[in-house]
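A reminder from the course coordinator: this example appears on the midterm review sheet, so study it carefully.

Given structure:
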């Protein structure tokens, strides 16, 4: 098989890496890919934008691509699946109507309420005055969310009324473009977050191993929100009892609600959950894609061939597949970031130490990197690398990830030293 992976992050490198471990897959093409996918044996990059549906379709058809896997949310929300499926291609990822579950938080909230899915109390506003009136009534802390896609930057967990006012103003002043035409104001929940990514063919839905990521830039989970500074799986806080409730109260109810809206949702459904201190849970958000960096710890533990699962989703026979098989043990990933991230940072710094990092047994997934004209790997984003360790337990996995990342070096590189602290005794 030949697989085409759309996207350029650590998630897409991990997907390509996983595919190439299978005997069934000869070649992976990444669009546009990064420095890791450019240099991995069996993989190549194709320099097209992820929203160039016509170019991607022509390439896939003329190169006999058997499976197209879409990583990021924005092409899904723009209908890449609908377009490529109409060309006769096999595409993993929901269609445009399904991707609304991530592309509109107001729409997703309405679906959750209608389906009886446990979620944070919320209200939706289309202008600042009424949003602020609601805010003054509710008080702080409170959570302000731009309705649409905002590259992970549209959510403010406001500790004070003035922070919340600023967030509302920024949204309605157009900081997020049309994503800010409406705002969701939500009750602020405390607790531990987990990510449950589930595979679905629109009829059957099966969770992957639950993961946790560290979203804050600073140690002890402090400071600004980021795209994720590290992750681990399987998250022990997601007990079998909790996962059984998530299956019936979240995943199955969501699929039923989507069906009743005439939406044939096939791909990954990602539920971001808050586990409240009393052991209950609420859905904070849905995503229509694999999580990043959760994928970099979930896929290394997956024993069933990923392409078999994806083809079963596309072919609507996930229910006929045997249970998803997992390797025993645990995985952890640590993100190497560029000085300044999540604010301003400089790109183009040469990265050294890959050979030594590989020798530790860790797996280095590239996130924001590229291969330059001198065949050097240079930084090309804020989150640069995800170094994943595997082991019999979290202690071993985390030790391996840190052994790997310590070998890597680039100017102003930094990483959190406490990834997985909650799961280490
Ligand atoms: P979202 O994109 O909706 O997942 O929000 C991004 C992040 O904001 C989440 O991962 C949480 O860390 C935080 N967040 C979102 N909603 C809430 C909430 N209702 N209470 C507390 N934190 C939240
Ligand atoms: N790790 C959070 C996300 O992928 O949205």
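Designed residues:
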């Amino acid at each position: 098989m030949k697989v085409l992976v759309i996207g350029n992050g650590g998630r897409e490198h991990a997907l390509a890496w996983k595919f190439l471990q299978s005997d069934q897959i000869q070649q992976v093409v990444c669009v546009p890919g990064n420095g890791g996918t450019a240099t991995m044996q069996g993989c190549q990059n194709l320099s097209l934008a992820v929203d160039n549906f016509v170019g991607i379709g022509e390439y896939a058809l003329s190169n006999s691509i058997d499976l197209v896997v879409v990583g990021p949310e924005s092409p899904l929300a723009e209908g890449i699946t609908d377009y490529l499926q109409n060309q006769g291609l096999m595409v993993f990822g929901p269609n445009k109507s399904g991707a609304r579950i991530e592309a509109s938080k107001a729409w997703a909230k309405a679906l959750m309420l209608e389906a009886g899915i446990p979620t944070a109390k919320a209200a939706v506003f289309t202008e600042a005055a009424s949003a602020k009136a609601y805010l003054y009534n509710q008080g702080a802390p409170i959570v302000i969310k731009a309705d649409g896609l905002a590259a992970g930057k549209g959510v403010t967990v406001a500790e004070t009324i003035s922070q919340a006012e600023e967030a509302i103003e920024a949204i309605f002043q157009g900081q997020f473009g049309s994503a800010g035409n409406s705002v969701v104001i939500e009750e602020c929940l405390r607790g531990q977050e987990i990510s449950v990514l589930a595979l679905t063919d629109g009829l059957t839905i099966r969770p992957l191993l639950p993961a946790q990521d560290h979203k804050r830039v600073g140690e002890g989970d402090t400071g600004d929100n980021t795209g994720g500074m590290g992750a681990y799986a399987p998250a022990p806080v997601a007990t079998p009892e909790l996962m059984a409730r998530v299956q019936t109260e979240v995943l199955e109810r969501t699929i039923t609600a989507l069906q009743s809206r005439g939406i044939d949702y096939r791909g990954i459904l990602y539920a971001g959950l808050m586990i409240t201190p009393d052991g209950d849970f609420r859905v904070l958000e849905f995503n229509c894609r694999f999580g990043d960096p959760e994928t970099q710890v979930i896929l290394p533990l997956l024993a069933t061939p990923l392409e078999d699962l994806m083809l079963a989703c596309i072919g609507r026979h996930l229910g006929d597949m045997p249970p998803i098989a997992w390797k025993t043990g645990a995985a952890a990933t640590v993100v190497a970031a560029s000085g300044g991230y999540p604010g301003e940072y400089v790109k183009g710094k040469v990265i050294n130490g890959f050979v030594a990092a590989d020798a530790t047994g860790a797996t280095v997934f590239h996130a924001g990197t590229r291969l330059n004209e001198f065949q050097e790997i240079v930084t090309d984003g804020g989150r640069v690398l995800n170094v994943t360790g595997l082991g019999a337990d979290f202690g071993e996995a985390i030790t391996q990830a840190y052994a790997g990342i310590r070998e890597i070096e680039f100017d102003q590189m930094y990483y959190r030293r406490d990834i997985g602290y909650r799961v280490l005794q």
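The first helix runs from residue 10 to 20. The mean pLDDT is 96.
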